[in-house]
Structure formats: structure tokens, C-alpha cells
Amino acid sequence: MAAISTVVLKAVKKITIQFCPFESNVRSTREFLALVGSEKVRSTNTNCEVISVVKHDKSEPVIDVTYVDGERLVMKGEWLTCREMLSAFQSRCKDKDPQIKAGAKK
């Protein structure tokens, strides 16, 4: 779990994670929820909402990320690993973080 130290929610407004816990394809989605829902990660942006929606309708697991600029990232976790979802999430966060952009220009 070394990746947890690099997850920063500065550019994120809301993360909605919905899944049916009785399906076999939700492991990576639940791991992603555990990662972004941890106290250490949540402390990087206390205004970010992390909402988990547990369903019992055999629906596919979906992660919906809304950034502060209004852009959305929707990941369907049925065939993605936690690492793949985290990589896509972090690359978007880094693109939107003004401090990282300013540091790269120097």
C-alpha cells in the first residue's frame, strides 16, 4: 500500500462508489473505496465527499469522480484492477493540481 501516500484529493469535489457486494467482480472497487476512504487520504481535502452506494441489484461496480472544475471521470470497475483505476485517477488529479503544474514549469 505504498500508493496510499501519493493519493491526494485536492482537485476532487466528490467521489461516488456504487457496487453490489454480493457480486464476484467488486473486489477492485472495494479496494479503491478503502484507499480513498482512508483517514490519511481524506485529510488531503476535507471538503471532498466520498460516498459509497451499496446496492443489491446485480449492477456493475461504478466509480464516479467529480473534479472541482466540473469534469467527471467514470470508471466501470468490473474488468479493471484497483491499480488501473488508481493510475487513471491519480493522473487526472496530477493534471489538475496547480501546485504540481507550477513545480513542473520551474
TrEMBL record:
It holds the Pfam family MRP_L53. It comes from the Eukaryota. Keywords: Mitochondrion, Ribonucleoprotein, Ribosomal protein, Transit peptide. Belongs to the mitochondrion-specific ribosomal protein mL53 family. This is Large ribosomal subunit protein mL53. It is found in: Mitochondrion. Signal peptide: none annotated. Gene3D superfamilies: Glutaredoxin (3.40.30.10). One of its GO terms (cellular component) is mitochondrial large ribosomal subunit. It comes from Xiphophorus couchianus (Monterrey platyfish). InterPro entries: mtLSU_mL53, Ribosomal_mL53.
